[in-house]
Specification:
By secondary structure, the chain is of the alpha+beta class. It folds into three domains: about 5-160, 2-Layer Sandwich (Beta-Lactamase), CATH 3.30.450.20; about 220-300, Signal transduction histidine kinase, dimerisation/phosphotransfer (DHp) domain (Helix Hairpins), CATH 1.10.287; about 310-455, Heat Shock Protein 90 (2-Layer Sandwich), CATH 3.30.565. About 55% of the residues lie in helices and about 15% in strands. The protein is built from nine helices and twelve strands. It has helices at about 5-55, 60-80, 150-185, 190-200, 220-265, 270-300, 315-330, 350-370, 420-430, and strands spanning about 90-95, 100-105, 120-125, 130-140, 145-150, 310-315, 335-340, 345-350, 375-380, 385-390, 435-440, 445-455. Strand 4 and strand 5 form a beta hairpin. The longest helix has about 50 residues, at about 5-55. The protein is rod-shaped. The two termini are about 55 Å apart.
């Protein structure tokens, strides 16, 4: 696509030249009209001045002497050559109705028939020259007064006016076009600077743009580019963290699986093979849980795209999740006790996020509750928050480890855990504007409370 500067210049200069051309055409038309009006007025005025001279009361001999003096003076001006170049292109003559010419200039044209139509007219003489003429009849003295000028006089004057008008327009247009070019270049310089800065950046550079001073029109563009760069940097960071975490955490389970597989091959009895196979299945299950939790952690990064929140009933969501968890808890010889709220509790959250959080809290409680124990799940509301509470009958938590339990890959007292469950719950609580708390129960065990802002 053509550059913005070239498109803008082409449009502006094209409009400028088109406007000047239209103005020049109108000026030419008006000049022709006005020149014609002025010259026509001069022709009529000269005719009437000549009429006034011809009306002077005098005897026939005096009139004849006046006519001779007129003709002599006019002929002398032409013969001496000291007149104006246009003087020979302007003429007048006076004749009687009989056709006898009384007075005329040396440049007066000859006609096949003398003009008879009073007023302005365009005539052609015997030498095929065009004249613009004015004929004035004087019935009092019985005279016809004819005054004319050659058309090439007017044409030459119009040409001079056109040259004197158009050339300044052309030169002015070129100067104005150059000024427009420089002005647009100066106006678009910040955009050109931004483009050159972007071109000069390394392809892998994700540093934010810091262009100053910057016009207000480009500030949103710079802000949008910086947001995009920050998002790309965050995505790449999450990807690197995920790869590093996966590589770190999968190394040991894979090594353990290899050992169990090797023990299975070397087992000498059926009992040893069964034990090695059971260890292998447990290792595969642990690796599967680790992979699932790593993927969940990657999806729930705090700075990733915000979840699609909706108004949900916390009780109904928890009941649906517990229905899926109950068979698994029974298989581990654990009981589940659910204490629902007396009224619906609504929050702004994603049902999937609540399901993931509850699964991790219940799984964590099941890992520390002995066989035959009870895991209690409660929901309640207080102080503007809806609370999802999971209680176990395990040994409780060490106060010195309380805050570290929310760190990724920190696992204490659970050799089968990956150390991601509570970290995932913490991320969900943060994204929903809530909090997670762990306390030891007086009767033994741990109470995990996920608090989420309530909505009406």
């Amino acid at each position: 696509m053509t550059s913005i500067r070239r498109r803008t210049l082409t449009l502006m200069i094209g409009l400028l030249l088109a406007g000047i051309s239209v103005i020049s055409v109108f000026n030419l038309h008006d000049s022709n009209h006005e020149i014609a009006e002025v010259y026509d007025a001069q022709l009529a005025q000269n005719a009437r001045l000549l009429q006034g001279v011809m009306r002077m009361p005098m005897e026939s001999r005096q009139q004849a002497a006046l006519y001779r003096a007129f003709n002599s003076a006019l002929g002398e001006a032409v013969s001496r050559g000291d007149g104006h170049p246009y003087e020979g292109k302007i003429a007048f003559q006076v004749w009687k109705p009989t056709g006898e010419i009384l007075v005329h200039t040396a440049s007066a044209p000859s006609f096949r028939t003398l003009p008879t139509q009073p007023g302005f007219s365009d005539v052609v003489d015997l030498e095929n020259r065009h004249w613009r003429a004015f004929l004035l009849e004087d019935p009092q003295n019985g005279l016809h007064i004819w005054v004319g000028e050659r058309e090439d006089v007017r044409a030459d004057l119009v040409d001079r006016i056109v040259r004197h008008t158009l050339w300044p327009n052309v030169i002015g247009s070129l100067i104005l076009a150059a000024m427009v070019w420089l002005a647009i270049g100066w106006g678009l310089k910040p955009l050109a600077n931004m483009a050159s800065t972007l071109r000069a950046r390394h392809s892998g550079s994700l540093e934010p743009l810091q262009l100053a001073p910057l016009p207000s029109e480009l500030e949103p563009m710079q802000a949008a580019l910086n947001r995009m760069l920050a998002q790309i940097q965050e995505v790449l960071g999450r990807e690197r963290r995920f790869i590093a975490d996966a590589a770190h955490e999968m190394r040991t389970p894979l090594a353990v699986l290899r050992v169990h597989a090797q023990n299975l091959l070397e087992a000498g009895t059926e009992q040893e093979r069964r034990e090695s196979l059971q260890f292998l299945i447990s290792g595969v299950d642990r690796a599967s849980r680790l992979v699932n939790q790593l993927l969940t952690m990657a999806r729930l990064e705090p700075k990733s795209d915000p979840p699609e929140l909706q108004r949900i009933d916390l009780g109904a969501t928890v009941r649906s999740s517990l229905a899926q968890l109950t068979p698994w808890l029974l298989s581990r010889q654990l009981e589940l006790d659910f204490e629902d709220s007396a009224r619906p509790l609504h929050i702004m959250a994603s049902p999937a996020a609540i399901d993931i959080a509850l699964n991790n809290l219940v799984t964590n409680a099941a890992n520390f509750t002995p066989q035959g124990g009870v895991i209690t799940v409660l929901i309640s509301q207080s102080e503007g928050f809806c609370h999802l509470i999971v209680e176990d009958q395990g040994p409780g938590i060490d106060e010195t480890d309380r805050m570290r339990l929310f760190e990724r890959f920190y696992s204490r007292g659970n050799p089968e855990g990956a150390g991601l469950g509570l970290a995932i719950v913490y991320i969900i609580a943060t994204r929903l504007g809530g909090r997670i708390a762990l306390v030891n129960r007086a009767q033994g065990g741990t109470r995990a409370t996920l608090s989420i802002p309530a909505c009406a």
